[in-house]
UniProtKB/TrEMBL annotation:
The lineage of its organism: Bacteria, Thermotogati, Synergistota, Synergistia, Synergistales. It comes from Aminivibrio pyruvatiphilus. InterPro entries: 4-hydroxybenzoyl-CoA_TE (IPR050563), HotDog_dom_sf (IPR029069), YbgC/YbaW (IPR006684). Transmembrane segments: none annotated. GO terms for molecular function: fatty acyl-CoA hydrolase activity. This is Acyl-CoA thioester hydrolase.
């Protein structure tokens, strides 16, 4: 749907195990970094939406691991909007090693649109309209 937004970061020592390989759960954290930077680059941060009373909790996720990221690797997280539904959005991510483009992981997260009290927002809301406009 939308075009991919790239964001590059370096794998820190604390992201890795004793063998210098990135811990598997960090990939989901990096998906979050990608989503956050995708939204910020398009003019609205998560904090902006939360200030307006709209939240995007993760309700489902998937990650396919292909090759390990290692300490000191620069990795690029490519994020895009894959699907917008009446009460949810899916962000798709892929992670590559920046030096050679080697694919490290790919996956997605599904987020519900909810209000401050955690109630599902079905239908029209400003965040959904904004995401739909980005998705094209």
């Amino acid at each position: 749907m939308s075009s991919e937004y790239p964001y590059t970061l370096r794998v820190r020592y604390g992201d890795t195990d004793q063998m210098g390989v990135a811990y598997y759960a960090n990939y989901l954290y990096w998906f979050e970094v990608g989503r956050t930077e995708f939204c910020r680059a398009h003019g609205k941060s998560y904090a902006d939406w939360e200030g307006e009373g709209i939240f995007l909790p993760v309700v489902e996720s998937h990650c396919r691991y292909k090759h390990p990221a290692r300490y000191e690797d620069e990795i690029t997280i490519f994020t895009k909007i894959a699907e917008v539904k009446i009460s949810s959005v899916i962000f798709e991510c892929r992670i590559e090693r920046a030096s050679d483009g080697k694919p490290l992981a790919s996956g997605w997260t599904r987020h519900a649109f909810v209000d401050r009290n955690g109630r599902l927002l079905r239908g029209d809301n400003p965040l959904r309209r904004w995401i739909e406009a980005l998705a094209g």
